[in-house]
Amino acid sequence: MNDARFLDEVAGTLAGLPTVEAVTLGGSRAQGTHRPDSDWDLAIYYRGEFDPQSLRDLGYEGEVSEIGGWGGGVFNGGAWLRIAGRPVDVHYRDLDVVAEQLARAESGEFHIEPLMFHLAGIPSYLVVGELAINRVLVGSLPTPGYPEALRMSAFRIWADRAALTLSYAEHNHAPRGRAAQCAGLLVVAACEYAHAILAARGAWVTNEKRLLDRAGMRGVDDTIAGLTGQPGVLTEAVAVVRALGTTTLRSMHGLAASSAASGSADDAGVGAPGGAAAHRSTKA
């Protein structure tokens, strides 16, 4: 069975499950960056209640979680399957939750929640980004742009978190030679900077796999590789990651230095997207 027929048949089968109204293809295959062995990432959009047993009853090889089985929140579960010899991930997407997060994103509101395998956690607007970039196979879904209000708020919140994460590493772990804890926080901060950078660009993020590359933060690898348990080395590493993040932010068109109050994202030496003009537009 060729890939096109495979995708058509699986999408049609998933769309036939009770309460499912739409099916999408996401991940690298939707964006044309996949390898021959890449997973097939499919999402089923349901309204009301979805019973995972209906997916189990299809008889596919693999593991099917309950609703909320992957930690709850917006990324509320799914399945790891093997279908016709191909690895397939199925994600559950509640249409009411997606609509709520779309409305929040348009107002510049979101929250960050933990998710297995994601170092910095995921923003609730992840499910909005999926609408924007995934390929609809069955049904109809909105295709939102990146809201200006979200661009502003996400930039500030993620940059603020990066600055605070590095400050904690600098003052609590580096002086005591705690290399493991320091390394962990450095990578988390790099991911937080990357989220800030991509938010400022108005670029959606749906996972962390290529997050550092897309944001120009891949240089953190060399810093992590050179860590030792010496306090001086750890303190210098904090400074290097901070400089990498803030320099990347400053280099972007429309980002201006600012002197906001201590403890904000601007304390790291960067301002909001669009500079003063952007501030005026949000107050209008």
TrEMBL record:
Residues 261-284 are annotated as: Disordered. Residues 13-58 form the Polymerase beta nucleotidyltransferase domain. Residues 261-278 have a biased composition (Low complexity). InterPro entries: NT_sf (IPR043519), Polbeta (IPR041633). One of its GO terms (molecular function) is transferase activity. Keywords: Transferase. This is Nucleotidyltransferase domain-containing protein.
